[in-house]
């Protein structure tokens, strides 16, 4: 098959931020994805009283695009629109970030959330309190987690991508085809050939022959099989192949921010050396 069956369609991107230095890495990924998909990017900060000083200028969209060579130094908001993207900044007056996120995603559904994470806390600085269960019960959205200590696959200085090597954990429950399709769609937009996609099977090999792997002349597919703890296999393979992105399907309602409950996604996220794209398994 020559095309992803269920491409990762992105029209709206949501990026919660705590205005920390670490969140800048997630921000440039969100901005780059908005450019690639000509999408609307909503940036939200939760504050119990008032916005921090300089909120309207942070994150600095136009200076970033100028640094990337996409806009002149003296650009206007209209120039940003000419690039095919829309930018919204939202300040939520709330004391509870998780409830603010739930409310926003309930009233304004998104196709992708991009979130900075601290691997020891499992979430951004202002999201350190448990958010997984209440959010995951109410929303179901694809999420790109960007660990705080990594540069990721988008350069902050140039905006160039370095998406060459992807790792995809394979399982039957949840099914892995949505992750394969999403990864194929993403690298069609952002990948820089040659592309290597490594499938990691930990445990049973049932259903491997049913996976649909899109073929391109500059893509190569590798498969690894092992026994034991799947998280250990995933992290070891990620380190061995120095992957730029891990793409995995997450199970049902545990998909969004279920990173504090000891799930596979949480353990992979806390040990990963690169961003993790979590694709919700189909409901039902």
Task: Describe this protein with a few key phrases.
8 helices; alpha/beta; globular; Rossmann fold; 284 residues; ten-stranded mixed sheet
What does this entry look like structurally?
The chain has 284 residues and is of the alpha/beta class. It folds into two domains: 12-147, HUPs (Rossmann fold), CATH 3.40.50; 165-279, 3-Layer(aba) Sandwich (Rossmann fold), CATH 3.40.50. The protein has helices at residues 23-37, 61-67, 77-82, 97-107, 132-136, 177-190, 230-240, 264-271, and strands at residues 12-16, 40-47, 86-93, 112-117, 142-147, 165-170, 195-202, 219-226, 245-250, 276-280. Helix 7 (230-240) runs parallel beside helix 8 (264-271). The longest helix has 15 residues, at 23-37.
Strand order, sheet with most strands: 3-2-1-4-5-10-9-6-7-8
CATH class of the largest domain: Alpha Beta
| CATH fold-type name of the largest domain | Rossmann fold
Q: What proportion of the residues form beta strands (DSSP E)?
A: 15-25%
Query: What structural class is derived from the secondary structure elements?
Result: alpha/beta
Oligomeric description of these chains: single chain
Number of domains: 2
So what's the overall shape?
globular
End-to-end span in angstroms?
A: 26 Å
What is the name of the CATH architecture of the largest domain? 3-Layer(aba) Sandwich
């Amino acid at each position: 098959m020559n095309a992803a069956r269920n491409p990762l369609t992105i029209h709206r991107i949501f990026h919660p931020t705590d205005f920390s230095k670490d969140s800048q890495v997630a921000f440039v990924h969100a901005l780059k994805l908005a450019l690639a998909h000509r999408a609307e990017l909503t940036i939200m900060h939760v504050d119990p009283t008032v916005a921090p000083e300089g909120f309207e200028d942070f994150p600095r969209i136009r200076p970033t695009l100028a640094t990337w060579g996409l806009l002149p130094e003296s650009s206007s908001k209209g120039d940003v629109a000419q690039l095919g993207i829309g930018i919204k900044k939202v300040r939520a007056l709330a004391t509870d970030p998780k409830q603010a996120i739930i409310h926003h995603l309930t009233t304004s559904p998104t196709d992708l959330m991009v979130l900075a994470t601290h691997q020891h806390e499992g979430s951004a600085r202002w999201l350190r309190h448990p958010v997984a269960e209440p959010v995951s019960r109410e929303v179901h959205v694809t999420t790109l987690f960007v660990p705080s200590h990594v540069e990721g696959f988008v350069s902050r200085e140039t905006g160039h991508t370095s998406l060459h090597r992807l790792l995809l954990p394979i399982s039957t429950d949840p099914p892995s085809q949505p992750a394969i399709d999403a990864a194929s769609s993403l690298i069609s937009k952002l990948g820089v050939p040659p592309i290597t996609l490594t499938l990691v099977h930990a445990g049973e090999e049932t259903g491997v022959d049913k996976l649909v792997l899109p073929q391109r002349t500059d893509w190569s597919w590798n498969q690894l099989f092992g026994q034991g703890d799947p998280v250990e296999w995933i992290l070891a393979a990620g380190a061995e192949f120095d992957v730029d992105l891990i793409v995995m399907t997450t199970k049902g309602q545990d998909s969004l921010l279920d990173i504090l409950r000891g799930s596979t996604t949480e353990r992979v996220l806390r040990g990963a050396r690169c961003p993790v794209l979590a694709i919700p398994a189909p409901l039902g």
